[in-house]
Structure formats: structure tokens, C-alpha cells
Design a protein that fits this description.
The protein is an alpha+beta fold and 273 residues long. It contains ten helices and five strands. It has helices at 5-15, 27-38, 43-53, 57-64, 86-90, 93-104, 146-157, 173-180, 198-210, 247-253; strands at 78-83, 110-111, 117-122, 134-136, 139-141. The protein has a five-stranded mixed beta sheet, covered by helices on one side. α1 runs antiparallel to α2, α2 runs antiparallel to α3 (43-53) and α6 runs parallel beside α7. The radius of gyration is 33 Å and the shape is globular.
Length: 273
């Protein structure tokens, strides 16, 4: 499907943001732009970016295949990403993914038959304090479980837009890609919502309750407790021998004189047969 004139005009607007001679820096937002219209970075999108920026197809493809936010196959209206990295995995992230996979009838990086929902594993969504988490078009749904995640997906299938836990109101994949290209959300309600929650503030609240202040530095924090170690002390850390004022100790501590060479007068010689 050819890119619309509206998209081409938006591309020229993106390029105009950069100083003359630096237009290739516009590649990242332009990839989001073509993705907003076509649902993926298509061969036509790669060619368009290369021509507009005066770079090769290989240079465009190298970037488009490096970042996971650029999709090479069409994505549905709702990209559901479930974190299954360590923190989320330990708190049930894999169970969330398995429930959604079974419910939708798709696996990783696959889209439902009606073309509306794409499911994927996410290596890390940078929200370990809210584990397990999932996102829909990069908007957060925190501390989910298989049941709550399934309810969110069912709402999407009904055409609803369930409110994310944090951030702005939910957008389609095309709408969010357009915003990632650097354009404002035209919806009146498209403003940022809650940006941080109690889990992210736990350390700050603990410090306030304890009366710790940044200007106090280490003095305001609890004393550090050395970790126990079973390793033998090294020679460098072994206690030094106590000093003695006796002549014997002094002479013992003095540096040794070099041994006299053989044949020196007054030095006994050893005869070797």
C-alpha cells in the first residue's frame, strides 16, 4: 500500500527538525512514522526512508532490525508485551504469558486471526518494582496476574480501551507509533496520567521516615556491616609483628649485607674435591 501524502508531508516535517547535513538523524522517528501507517517497517518504508534521507537501504535496514520497537511483520491494533525476564518470571510472568497465549491462540510474535492483537515475550520492561508487568502498545499494566491480564485482553477484544496503571490513555499501535515519531496526541484526553506509584517511592519513603537526608551523606545512613568471609587473610592484611628495642631485634630487622665474593681475605674457603 503506497504511503499517503499526509505521511510524506509528516516525514518532511521530521527532517526539518534537524540541522542541515544532519538529516540522517531523523531515521528513528521516520521509521516510527512509516510504521504508524503500515503497521510495520515494510520494504516500501525502508526505500522511502533511504530516499528521503539520502542513505542506503542497508543503513536503514540495519537500524530497523536492531531495535525491537520496529516490527518487520504487520502488528495488530494492540501489541501485548508480557515481561518474562527474571523479576517478573519469579512473580508469575510466565504464567501470565501462557494464559494469554492459550486464550488468544497465538504464540510469540504472532497475531490473532482477526488481526487485532499481537502477543510477544518481552525481555525487560524496566518496571521490576511492579512485577509482573505487561504493556499494551508500551503503556503499563502493573502487578498483573493471569486473571487480570486476561480481563484486559478481553476488554481489548470487545473494542474497549482499559486504562493503564500509569501513563496516558491507551492508543492503538498506529497512534502510539505516530506519537513516537514526535507528533502530539490529538485527543483531548491524551495527556499524561500517573507517572509513578508507591513501589517506586518505597526507598524515598523509608529514608524520610528514618530522617535520612541527602546532605548528610553516608553519616545519615545505617552503618555498613562487613560481609563475613571464610577466606584466609592475605599477606597484605596480616597484622605486622610488634616492634622491639632490643639490639638483637634491631640487627635482625636491618637489611642483610651482600655475601662476600669467594677468595676475599679473611673469609674461610671450602675446598671442593
Amino acid at each position: 500500500m503506497p504511503l499517503t501524502e499526509q505521511t510524506r508531508a509528516a516525514a518532511r516535517e521530521i527532517v526539518a527538525r534537524y540541522p542541515e547535513g544532519r538529516s540522517r538523524s531523523a531515521l528513528l522517528p521516520m521509521l516510527h512514522l512509516v510504521q504508524s501507517e503500515q503497521g510495520a517497517v515494510t520494504a516500501e518504508g525502508v526505500e522511502f526512508c533511504a530516499e528521503e534521507l539520502g542513505i542506503t537501504h542497508a543503513e536503514v535496514s540495519a537500524v530497523a532490525t536492531f531495535y525491537t520497537m520496529y516490527k518487520r511483520r504487520p502488528v495488530g491494533d494492540w501489541l501485548v508485551s508480557v515481561c518474562t525476564n527474571l523479576s517478573c518470571l519469579l512473580r508469575g510472568g510466565e504464567e501470565v504469558y501462557e494464559r494469554l497465549s492459550k486464550n488468544l491462540g497465538v504464540g510469540h510474535d504472532q497475531t490473532t486471526e482477526d488481526g487485532t492483537i499481537t502477543l510477544e515475550h518481552a525481555e525487560c520492561l524496566a518496571a521490576c518494582d511492579y512485577a509482573p508487568v505487561m504493556t499494551v502498545n508500551y503503556e503499563f499494566y502493573d502487578q498483573v496476574n493471569p486473571d487480570s491480564a486476561e480481563e484486559i485482553v478481553e476488554a481489548l477484544r470487545r473494542g474497549e480501551r482499559p486504562a493503564p496503571t500509569r501513563g496516558g490513555p491507551l492508543c492503538t499501535f498506529g497512534e502510539s507509533s505516530f506519537q513516537l515519531a514526535g507528533f502530539e496526541d490529538p485527543r483531548p484526553e491524551g495527556v499524561a496520567g500517573q507517572g509513578v506509584g508507591t513501589p517506586s517511592l518505597a526507598g524515598v519513603l523509608l529514608a524520610e521516615a528514618a530522617g535520612w537526608k541527602a546532605e548528610d551523606g553516608v553519616a545519615g545512613a545505617p552503618p555498613l556491616t562487613p560481609l563475613p568471609s571464610n577466606a584466609p587473610p592475605s599477606a597484605a592484611s596480616a597484622p605486622a609483628a610488634p616492634a622491639s628495642s632490643s639490639p638483637a631485634s634491631s640487627s635482625a630487622a636491618a637489611p642483610a649485607s651482600p655475601a662476600p665474593a669467594p677468595g676475599t681475605p679473611g673469609v674461610p674457603q671450602t675446598k671442593v674435591n
